[in-house]
Amino acid sequence: MFAIGDHIIYSTHGLCRINDICDETVSGVTKKYYKLHPLENTLVTISTPVGNDKVVMLKLLQKEQALEIIDVFKKPEVESQTPQNPKTQPNKIHSGDRMQIAGVINALMRKKFDTQIQKESFYAHDYKLLNNTQIILFKELAHAMDISFEDINKMINELVTEDLPQEVK
């Protein structure tokens, strides 16, 4: 169980702070609920039952874990070299496993740059999946590394584009 004041990753909202844990009655059933606020938008309040398995709530990464995840972007993953079923990507993302999430982001980033080289279109659903997932993971990595989002974004983009022609970078 998390405590009031903890910073966590919450599902699609990313970095959040737990502001309260209280009892709420919904449909005649009283349960404990977390009251969360996304760090980016304190006007939003999220209420979710304690012990809810349908959403991902994770402790924030430590620096050592962040470094391991950044290593994923140093090489083309097997996933990015073989055709993959796009239907499995959301499952990997919703699993909450940051290594799998980084693998999906790495594959999609490389696919995006490859489509630029080939002068092809990058599919809108791939772009949306990449953009949303990348923002949440990169913000968490930046927090763990105590650097800005812009710095982590630049660092990872450099790792992914290291072997690409100059005009794509």
From TrEMBL:
SUPFAM superfamilies found in the cross-reference section: CarD-like
GO biological process terms on file: rRNA transcription
InterPro entries (alphabetical): CarD-like/TRCF_RID (IPR003711), CarD-like/TRCF_RID_sf (IPR036101), CarD-like_C (IPR042215), CarD-like_regulator (IPR052531), CarD_C (IPR048792)
Source superkingdom: Bacteria
Segments forming domain CarD-like/TRCF RNAP-interacting: 1-109
PANTHER family: RNA POLYMERASE-BINDING TRANSCRIPTION FACTOR CARD (PTHR38447:SF1), TRANSCRIPTION FACTOR YDEB-RELATED (PTHR38447)
Protein's UniProt name: CarD family transcriptional regulator
Organism: Planococcus versutus
